[in-house]
Amino acid sequence: MLSIKQELLDAPPPPPAATPLPPITHRISLSGYRNIHAKSFLKTMTMDLCVRRVVLSLLENRRALWIRVHKSPKADWEVLGVEVFERTGKAVSVKQLQRIFLTARDWLRRNLQLYIIQRKMDKLTLDAELAKWELYPHFIYYRQYLGQFEAHLRGEEWTGELYDDDIICDGIMQVEVSTRVFNNPAQDEVPIVENYEGYGGSVASMAEAGGCEHAQMDTSRGYEQSRQQKAAIGGYEQPQMATPRGYEQQRMQREATGGCEQPQVAAAFSSNFASASTSRSRKRPHSSIKQEDSVSYTKITEDLLQKKPHKHRFIRQALFKTIMALDDDEVEYTELADLFGDIAEQSNVVRRLRLQRQQQRGRGEQRQVEERH
C-alpha cells in the first residue's frame, strides 16, 4: 500500500458540461436532403450557435470525417447534414458543415499557441480559459486529439495523455523554462513555432490573422505575475517553485536588502494547491526550519534548474513527490530506502497504467486504419 498522500493527488477538474443534443423532431430522407435547393441553405447557418453546437457534437463519433475533411466521402457529410436537419429543423450544406468544423479547429489551434507560448499558461489555467469559449464543451474531443501538438508547444515529451499522472499540478511547483538562452536577457522576441501540423510563424501574427475577439482578451492573473517578474529581473524568466507560507518573511527580508525576490507561492486557482493548503500536515509550524537553511535549499534548487533547463520537468516531478512523501503524517520515514521505495512503487504503477493505455490506443488506431482500407 502506498504511503504517499492520496488526498493531494486530485484529478484534473471536470470539463464544462455540454448542452444536450436536441431530440429529433423533424424527418427528412437522404434523397430529400440532396434535393434541397442551394438557395435554401442560408449563409447565416455557420454563425448559428445552436447549429454549431449540434454539428461539433455529432462529429465527435465521426472521426473519419474530420481527420481528412476535404478527402472524406461527400455522402458521409450528407448523412451528417440529414441528422443536423432532423435535430434543428435547419438545412446546412456540406460546405457549411465543413466550414463550421474548420473554423472551430483553427480557433483552437491558434489559441493553444497563443496561451501556451505567449501567455505561459499552465494546464489548469489553460483549461479555465478555454472553458470560456461557448463551443469548447462540444469540442473537447479535438483538444484531446491535439494532445501531441500541445505537448510540442510546451516542449514536453508526449505521453499519450493531456494530464501527466506523475506531475499532479503545474501550479504547486511552477517552473517556467524559457526557450531563450539564460545568459542573454536582451533577447525578447516572440518565439517562433516550428511548422507543426501545418502551422508556423509567430504567435502574434496568428492572433492578428485570426481576428478572434477571444484571442485578444486580457492576460490572466498568472501571466501578469510572470510578466511583472520578467520585467523586474531584466527580461528573462527564472525557474520558479512553490515556497511554504512560512517563508513570506524571508521574501520580504530579501526585498529589503535588494536581493532577488523569493519565488512566489503557487497561484490560488490551482485546485491541488487549495487541497494542499487545507491539508492537516500543511498547518504544522515551520519554526524548526532555520532561515539560512531555507535560503540555501532554494538557491541549490534554482542553480540546478538553471544548469539543466532541459530536465526541468523531471526535476519538478522528483521534488514534488519527495516533498509530498516527507510531508505525510501517516508514516515517519527514517531510512532513505523506504522513502524512495514507496516513490518507486507509485511510479511503477503509473508507468504500467500508461503503457496499457498506449497499447489500447495503438490497437484502436490500427483497427481504424484497417477499416478504412
Summarize the entry for a quick read.
With 373 residues, the chain is mainly alpha-helical. The protein folds into two domains: 27-92, no CATH class; 104-330, no CATH class.
Descriptive account of the structure:
This is LIn-8 Domain containing. InterPro entries: LIN-8 (IPR005020). The chain is an all-alpha fold and 373 residues long. It has 2 domains: 66 residues, no CATH class; 227 residues, no CATH class. 50% of the residues lie in helices and 2% in strands. It is built from 15 helices and 2 strands. A hairpin with a 2-residue loop joins strand 1 and strand 2. The two termini are 47 Å apart.
Explain the layout of strands and helices:
Elements: H1 30-34, H2 49-59, H3 63-67, H4 74-88, H5 94-118, H6 123-130, H7 140-145, H8 147-154, E1 192-196, E2 199-202, H9 203-210, H10 221-232, H11 248-256, H12 271-277, H13 291-307, H14 312-326, H15 336-372
Helix pairs in contact: 2-4, 5-9, 14-15
How much of the sequence is in beta strands?
under 5%
Multimeric state of these chains?
A: single chain
Distance between the termini: 47 Å
Task: State the shape.
Answer: elongated
**Biggest sheet, open or closed, and with what strands and sense?**
2 strands, antiparallel
Order of helices and strands: HHHHHHHHEEHHHHHHH
The largest sheet has its strands arranged as 1-2
Instruction: Give the helix tally.
Output: 15
Unreliable runs, pLDDT <50, ≥5 residues?
A: 1-11, 164-248, 253-287
- For the record, the count of structural domains works out to 2
Q: What's the overall average pLDDT, rounded?
A: 69
> What's the count of strands?
2
What is the C-alpha radius of gyration, as a whole number of Å? Answer: 25 Å
Helical content class: 40-55%
